[in-house]
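target protein:
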Amino acid sequence: MRGFFLVMALAGATASAQSQYANKLAPFVASPARVMDRMLELANLKPGETLYDLGCGDGRILIAAVQKYKVKAVGVEISPKLVAKARASIQKAGIQNQARVIQGDVLETDPSGADVVYLYLSTKLNEQLRPRLESQLKPGARVVSHDYPVPGWKPAKVEETGGSQQHEIYLYEMPPNHQ
């Protein structure tokens, strides 16, 4: 009988954690390096600009952007485990003065300091973010999204990557054209 209660307690804890983040998370899936590199190229990053990676996972995009483009980078991640991993990677790379990770919900993030926003989220989550991006990003800011469009926006460019797995990259410029 104790085993039954333990299983039920664990199931309840899992359900509670899932409901806490229900409809807010995209699972962590790392962008392939070639896709990440092309997204950063398409974003046309310039030294001194600021990149926000919403749902930054392990921080690899932040590190690549700082090292290759000499930008400042801010990641937002809800998972404490991934935040710790990203912060450790930033520390190891020695770029803690140029990159940081905020533990938080991307839907509650203020992206107004961003010149570029990097997304690898679901279309539904992109749609939920759209009003915040429209109201808080400055004219000329770019939004680059991996595989999932931002509903209601017309991309400035859509590019398909080659290779064994096809990926689409959507580039938007603020203010966005509406479809």
In short: The chain has one domain: 29-178. The two ends are 59 Å apart (CA to CA).
